[in-house]
Model the fold of this input.
Amino acid sequence: MRRVMATAAALIAVLAGPSAAALPANAAPNPTANAVAPLAAIAPQPGTYTGKGFDTCAAPSQSTMNAWRTSSPYRAVGIYISGSSRSCSQPNLTATWVSNQVANGWRLIPIELDYQASCGTRTPKMSSDPATARSQGSTRATAAVNAATALGLPAGSAIYNDIEQYPTNASCRAAVLSYLSGWTDRLHALGYLSGMYSSGSSGVTDVCGAYNNTAYTRLDHLWIAWWNGVADTDAGQYCDDSYYANHQRLHQYAGDVTETWGGVQMRIDRNYLDVSSSTQEPPPTFSAIVDNSTAGRFTASANWGTSSYSTQRYGADYRFANPVAASDPAWYKVDIPETATYEVSVWYPANAGYNNATPYIVVTSSGNQTVQVNQQATGGQWVSLGVFTLSAGDSDKVGVSRWTTGTGYVIADAIRVTRV
Done:
């Protein structure tokens, strides 16, 4: 959002807007657009919207907004509501202006421009210490909400933190992600949604790289600066398509362009939005099956034999062992993408000679839980052990123990973990 380089002359031209004589007769705004709406409660912004928008340094005059509302393809406009780094004064940006634009059908994109990356050239810089940066993000969120409230932008609105391009590195990345975590946590506490604007090669890459990192709080919306000229919400190589995929993206696809609509010229950045006011992001689909023969995923001592006797087996064979009053479990290793709730199911062949109280060990985020299964019945199908909170990471998650008071062989065949 290249705003600090705007010249005084260009700003004056934008703020002044066109004279009535400069507008062609067929571009005159309609009476509805010209009418001054009474100040009233407005819906959360930008709300649910798919389509084109623009941002410019200073909130345009009412006549400019009217002309562009009538003639341009844009229906959303970015406005700088807070932050010490804003390079333009905002004489037009008042609660009345906000109310009038929303009444005239505009969606507003509230922007905060303050702290910048600790490794960048822009100032003021956030702290390189993650804990301090997190606190700074929280403080700025409070200030941004105060500004939003003064303008009549209600809870449920998203506020976008503008972090300009920076030469990312591990230390800087940790500071930015911590800052945005503080920003998001505080906005959520105050009833607002959190967003970030940044370049694809720095902020967007860092945020998407930490998408499943539970050390940081995930944003609600992602605004991608990638000037590829394509009006969509794709982020190319900068962010996986499955991230921020539930109406959570804005794409600034062109910048520093001059356009004229209704006889009124402005210097803008072009954006495409696919956003929603919902805070609910559907959990990503995840399901993994580990068989006793899955390479690198199953371990058992030499006390566990191998059999293909039962046709109810999963795969080519399964493992069996005599019960014993000692710790000698067989383990299934699963790479869990994110700490969340998962259903754990097991597959085994059933037989009267198999154990009637086989202990399955589930390694949950709060400690091991044991579920006993009667392997003399209900074989040859998935049997649910229940739903558990599993921690992210690639490690042993489900075990089959030989330590049981039941009778018959203990069987270890296959397990399935599915996010719910």
Q: What stands out?
A: Helices lie at 8-16, 31-34, 62-71, 95-103, 130-150, 170-189, 200-209. The chain has seven helices and 20 strands. The two ends are 39 Å apart (CA to CA).
